[in-house]
Write a structure and sequence with these properties.
The chain folds into 2 domains: 325 residues, no CATH class; 55 residues, no CATH class. Helices cover 57% and strands 3% of the residues. It is mainly α. Strand 1 and strand 2 form a beta hairpin. Helix 4 packs antiparallel against helix 9, helix 9 runs antiparallel to helix 10 and helix 9 runs parallel beside helix 11. The protein contains 21 helices and 4 strands. The strands form 2 sheets. A two-stranded antiparallel sheet has the order 1-2. A two-stranded antiparallel sheet has the order 3-4.
């Protein structure tokens, strides 16, 4: 979020968390749940109206009401924000981090897919909410990441006259603050396995600074994976007995609505569901089940409206007979293209090539560090299987959380590898199992390593900042989206739809746009204006 947008939206979660949760949930967790609640709000609002000025006004009125109704809980959250210690070091560090990420957020977006479809998808949400059959205009609109609704809510185009694009930087700031402020060596505590996950989170954020000003949908799900695992592991190491698992599972579910590639994270729900059933705690079980449905339902409804399918691009889930449904062959081809591209094959027709054919191609394109990580994961996977069997055989319940977290990490790695292993879709999966292994051996055999770990932490942060400082990052008015040269195409009813003069990027300025001008010959409007949506012409179905 840009400097103009930094404010405490944590009060929104007061309507999400059950009574008493504020007594032990950390501020970072409160803020992440607040983001989750705001995303659901934006998705629901988009089903009925465009997400613009009215959405912001309704949100502010809702916050005022929540402030009044839950004023005691909000007071507790505000008190938690007191990070100033006797020396004031924490306050200085926090201020510098906020200013740094605010500066990152003001940079011009550079991510390729932002100008391919992210920016246009956000503008559709800003101007029309959800549009039936929008995927027929451009198939990538059907990807429907929940994050784009959140970005539209905080773009403030209707307020400032310019669409802002700082949500990734804002969320990166929350995650980075969590990683730094909970780092055990900095608190003069013994090193923990969760601290390695904190380092991984910082590393991913620092190496993603170049694209963090873009509203791309890859960063948040990867950050959520590491954050949830780190948080879960930290609570386990600290023997926290209060209920945190349900909330972390809800964040995992939310992450899945941002990017389906982190679906294995949902396996974390096995433990809390089993616990609630064993204890017959029907209240919590029902609460979290309902909240999971609240998170998922708007996402799925938007899927159906945009593409005609419950989940895109999975033509197998063909449950609705609507006139705007995207053709099955388009959905299937898109699915195959994602797989082929992720495996390093530039020909969609090669999507079904066996592992022995595509793997060498994919592996050759990896960087040296990525190849080393892949090799390192082979013994880590073997050790994970042995560890799980050992725990299950002797029923060592004290290791149940370690089994769960390592199993989720292994499942994520394998699902990513055997579906669409494009590095930016799953980079953190290559780090997770090695992080658990290294963390275990460090805790077991190395005693005095805090200084070394602090040096490593400084190196990770310094590496990211130094690399980013190659270009100027002053605090400034946020730069707008870049412009691309496009041409006008007369469509229907006087409507003009733009297409790129060269390449396939259209950007934000020329709206509405599609990278494929030829697609306009195959579709038609469902009514008299754009809000009515698009459908495939009868002779092209």
């Amino acid at each position: 979020m840009d400097l103009y947008q930094f404010h405490d939206h944590g009060i929104f979660i007061c309507s999400v968390l059950p009574e008493g949760c504020g007594e032990y949930y950390d501020l970072d967790l409160v803020l992440i749940v607040g983001v989750m609640g705001l995303t659901v709000y934006a998705e629901v609002f988009s089903l009925f109206h465009r997400v613009g000025f009215l959405a912001v006004v309704v949100l502010l009125l809702g916050e005022v009401i929540i402030l009044w109704v839950r004023r005691s809980a909000v007071k507790h959250y505000v008190l938690q924000m007191n990070v100033i210690n006797k020396s004031g070091i924490k306050a200085v560090v926090l201020t510098l981090m906020i200013l740094f990420f605010a500066a990152v957020a003001t940079q011009e977006p550079t991510h390729y897919d932002t100008y391919l479809y992210h920016a246009q998808a956000i503008e559709w949400i800003e101007k029309y909410g959800v549009v039936a059959g929008l995927g027929n205009l451009h198939n990538r609109f059907a990807y429907n990441s929940a994050f784009l609704c959140l970005q539209a809510l905080f773009s403030w185009k209707s307020v400032l006259g310019q669409s802002l694009h700082g949500m990734n930087a804002y969320l990166g700031m929350i995650m980075a603050v969590y990683a730094v402020f909970t780092f055990s060596p900095l608190k003069k505590e013994s090193f923990k396995t969760s601290d390695l996950l904190n380092l991984l989170l910082l590393f991913y954020i620092m190496t993603s600074l170049e694209t963090m000003s873009s509203p791309n949908t890859d960063l948040l799900p990867m950050m959520i994976v590491v954050y949830v695992l780190s948080k879960w592991m930290r609570y386990t190491e600290q023997n926290v007995i209060k209920d945190y698992e349900g909330i972390l599972c809800l964040i995992a579910v939310y992450g899945i609505t941002v990017k389906l590639s982190i679906l294995p994270l949902a396996l974390l729900a096995v433990k809390p569901v089993f616990t609630y059933l064993k204890k017959r705690d029907w209240r919590k079980l029902c609460f979290y089940a309902v909240m999971a449905l609240v998170i998922v339902l708007p996402f799925m409804i938007r899927n159906v409206v945009i593409s005609g399918y419950l989940l895109y691009p999975y033509a197998q889930l063909d449950l609705f007979d609507v006139d705007w449904k995207m053709p099955a062959y388009t959905v299937i081809r898109d699915n195959h293209e994602i797989m082929a591209w992720g495996r390093g094959l530039r020909d969609v027709n090669r999507y079904s090539e066996p592992f022995s054919v595509w793997f060498p191609v994919w592996f050759t394109e990896l960087r040296m560090t990525e190849k080393l990580l892949f090799y390192l994961n082979i013994p880590c996977l073997a050790e994970t299987v042995i560890f799980i069997l050992w725990v299950c055989k002797d029923k060592r319940s004290q290791y149940s959380d370690s089994v769960l977290l390592k199993s989720v990490s292994a499942a994520g790695l394998l699902m990513w590898l055997f579906t669409a292993p494009l590095i930016r879709y799953g980079l953190v999966y290559l780090f997770l199992l090695p992080a658990f292994e290294v963390g275990f051996w460090i805790r077991k055999y190395v005693r005095e390593i805090n200084r070394l770990i602090l040096l490593l932490t400084g190196t990770v942060i310094g590496y990211g900042i130094a690399g980013y400082l190659n270009r100027s990052i002053p605090l400034q008015y946020p730069r707008p989206y870049g412009e691309y040269e496009c041409v006008e195409n007369e469509f229907q009813n006087g409507v003009v739809i733009w297409s790129p003069k060269r390449g396939d990027q259209t950007g934000y300025l020329n709206f509405p746009a599609t990278p494929y001008a030829g697609q306009l010959e195959r579709i038609e409007m469902r009514g008299d204006n754009l809000a009515d949506g698009f459908r495939i012409k009868a002779n092209n179905k």
